[in-house]
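Can't paste images in this forum, so I'm doing it all in text. The chain is below; anyone willing to post the predicted structure tokens underneath?
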Amino acid sequence: MFTIRVGKRKIKLLNWIIFILVLFFIIYLIGSVFFMIPVFTKSYNYKLVKENYEINNKVFFKNLWFTCKTTEEYKIKAENNFIYDALEKDLIKDGFKKRKQKLIRVNKSLGTCKNDRDLYKKNHSDNYVLFKLNGEKEKKVIYGNDYNDEYVTAKISDKVIKNVNIISNVNKNKIGKYLVTYTMNISKDYTQRLYRIVNVKDEEKPVIKIEGEKNLFLNYSEAYKEPGYTAVDNYDGNITNNVEVKNTVNSKKTGTYKITYKVKDSSNNVAIEQRIVTVKEQNKTVNKEEPKIQVKDGITYVNGVLIVNKTYSLPKNYNPKVNKTALKALKNMQADAKALGLDLKLVSGYRSYETQKKLYENYVLKDGVEKANTYSAKPGNSEHQTGLAFDIGKVDSSFANTDEAKWIEKNAHLYGFIVRYPKDKIDVTGYIYEPWHVRYLGVDLATKVWESNLTLEEYLGLK
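Text version of the structure:
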């Protein structure tokens, strides 16, 4: 083996190497322990408070041989999820990793932790760093208007920082919530950020345009026909289909009515317009002259109209069958109603004297004479014997509340029919309200009677 002479002694080279290594290790161990003792483990806590968030930071400094290990634990609190998500995303870019409810970053550097800790305290001191928003933390911008940023105040050790990085995704032409991020680098490992929320809002009401006159006048019993309307919004465009119309017009009652048009856009801006409809007084001059009554072969005609009621009856042998013109008009009315999803089936049409007699006598046995007389005619006094009257839909009091009954009331005259026994007219006709019972008069006369809001007897001047 190789030897090294030291004075008069000879030492083997291997032993010499081992001696040097052991000596170095002892010196390294003693030095390391000495180096670790001052700040073996230290912690530093601080809270970073900004306009719309705060970070509670707990920092651990630990010496390991000649290395300082720094562990940062961030806990975030934000005013809303919008800010929280943005901050969390930016911190992850800075090297933090998410662990449960914390964000953690670990750094290692050569040297003592004392220097790292002092530098950390300096960089994170409010006296050293001034970084705040100018103006509002949440700013409203009206849709279509430009966004003017109010910038920030940024200083490090009282030195104004001008190279603050700004990232903005604000779109003035689209309603929504946007974020402006301001970034300032304090050191290579430390970045502060500020966030401003920008709300682009539409606060302009839609515009409803009413077609035709805003003040309309109707004759008594004249049907109201909607002239039309449109609605346009500055953001949503044409929203005519969203318009709600409230129509309270009752053309058979004199007075002033309001038709309300209401629409709401996607930003909940509401527009309302109104149309005023005035129903004129009823024309009271209908047939003021004494009615012309004629009786031919036992059949009564008033002003040329065949009349049958509790006063005027038909001969026992009168047997005209169903009137073909009336039946054709009925079928046309049924077809048009069916196209609208309405069922106006024929329940009863022409009846002979004998048939009416059997019906009436059965009703008398069931309910007595007085009550039977309110809904059934005596033989000879029934309109069904004329061949001009029909029961359609359903012969029941519940029929009055159906769409079919409402449609008949408003449209039967267009086919030449009237509802023969109207509501609240029992004192005139002698019969209860029968929305199912229609009488054919021809379109011209039926329309005049309907518009007069009178019973046939009243229109002819019999009452």
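The radius of gyration is 48 Å. The mean pLDDT is 89.
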